[in-house]
Amino acid sequence: MEIDFLIRKDRKVIPIEAKSGKTFAIKSLEKFKKKFTNKVGLQYVLHDGDIKREGEIIYLPYYMAAVL
């Protein structure tokens, strides 16, 4: 399992994955959430695309990394 960045916020750990390309998998985020369920907050994916949310995973374009 590989997570690119971790941020601590309100006693929760926020995992962040940076992805390149148009297609990618988020298996590391899923494994991380499963292993540390009680300690994980929202999860973020930085990618080359639009803003969207799928459950507890928020997808942001690269330029929005500064708002995290």
List keywords for this structure.
single chain, 68 residues, mainly beta, 5-stranded mixed beta sheet, 1 helix, 5 strands
Short summary of the structure?
The protein is 13% helix and 37% strand. It contains 1 helix and 5 strands. Strand 4 (52-54) and strand 5 (57-61) form a beta hairpin.
Q: What would you note in describing this structure?
A:
The protein is mostly beta strands. It has one domain (5-67). It has one helix at residues 27-35; strands spanning 5-9, 12-18, 43-47, 52-54, 57-61. The longest helix has 9 residues, at 27-35. The two termini are 22 Å apart.
Layout of helices and strands:
Elements lengths: L4 E5 L2 E7 L8 H9 L7 E5 L4 E3 L2 E5 L7
Parallel strand pairs: 2-3, 3-5
Antiparallel strand pairs: 1-2, 4-5
H/E element order: EEHEEE
User: From the helix content, strand content and strand pairing, which structural class follows?
Assistant: mainly beta
Q: Number of helix segments?
A: 1
Mean pLDDT equals: 93
